[in-house]
Amino acid sequence: MEKLVVAYSGGLDTSVMVKWLHEKFNAEVITATGDLGQARELEGVQAKAYATGAVKAHVKDLKKEFLEDYVFPTLKAGALYEGVYPMATSIGRPLLAKYMVEVARQEKASVIAHGCTGKGNDQVRFEVSIAALAPELRCIAPLREWEFRSREEEIAYARKHGIPVAATAKNPYSIDENIWGTAIECGVLEDPMVEPPADAYQLTVDPALAPDAPAYVEIEFLDGAPVALGGTPLSAVELVGMLNRIGGAHGVGRMDLVENRLVGIKSREIYEAPAAVILHFAHTELERLTLDKRVMNMKAHMANEYADMVYNGLWFSPLRNALDAFVSETQKSVTGTVRVKLFKGGTAIAGRKSVYSLYNARLATYTAEDTFDHGASEGFIKIFGLPVKTYHQVHAGAGTNGEDVAKKAALEPR
Ligand code: ARG
Fold this sequence. Notes:
alpha/beta, Rossmann fold, 5-stranded antiparallel sheet, Argininosuccinate synthetase, chain A, domain 2, 16 helices, binds arginine, single chain, 3 domains
């Protein structure tokens, strides 16, 4: 009998999928669930898989690997998709794909099925990653081809086949959640003019209802990765979990974004990612202190490239190795401490220090301690401004209300 691995979340789609795949392909269905910190969804997932007809149900805690090997590289790169989205969903897909491949090989399965729709980014991320890691494996996306046209039809199929369906009322939103952040779409959110209702948010309080006193967090970075909070060394999972709690309680980390999907459409999604927002903010502030000006500028370009690469599902590509080499080099000096103030949904810088600080008080000060060579500025300005001066000698009057002397001379009859 053919063996098939399903990327299983325990939700309605992937539950129906287990049965549907078994019937359609007459195959043994094995489920694999990667734990990226989607705590609420994972309870009883294994029992549910068996109850749904899986012959084997794998579950693996991937949180540490997720943060250290996937998320932190994007943090070091400063990669935010379209300048906003910290990509919790996007960066989880390559790791889940890698895990599916691992299970498929272990189980000697020839096919991997996933529950992504035919109009999203996730199908691309999954399938490109699997093709990169295991070109011999086939991918199927039942949602692109099966007969069900609505949730009701899926529920009817589930009932008919004795698949357990949660009796709870359907959440009006489509939610994807992991330790790096939550993505929420559908329902009333499909109208970009509608402000997200209070019930759309899952883990942050309304900034207006956040405490009237700010919270301070002191984050230590080592080579660009966060390693301690308030002087206490923490694992990546502890540190991110703690910042999610503190940030969420102060209403930090909400985003509302109309974004460009890889499949050509614009979609509106809201995100909640307190730890991601705080860490990106703090990391950037530390870089302002320790990075050379030109490195900083180049890195900002690279950050966009990095974000596009991750969003577009190209994690397992030579571009990532090349960009990571650049980013790693820059992070050698991103070691230090940043104090961030969290207040009513906002983050503010409250202090920063580093052994690699390029801030030189004796150069910056306006007091008698000043060592800056003021006289040298005169010659510097002469040379620096020379091209501008030369231009205006030729284009006298250009850009002002006066006449353009060069143009007048050129037009004069010889
Ligand atoms: N737009 C985000 C991305 O492409 C999240 C997709 C999943 N969103 C969801 N609400 N299920 O990475």
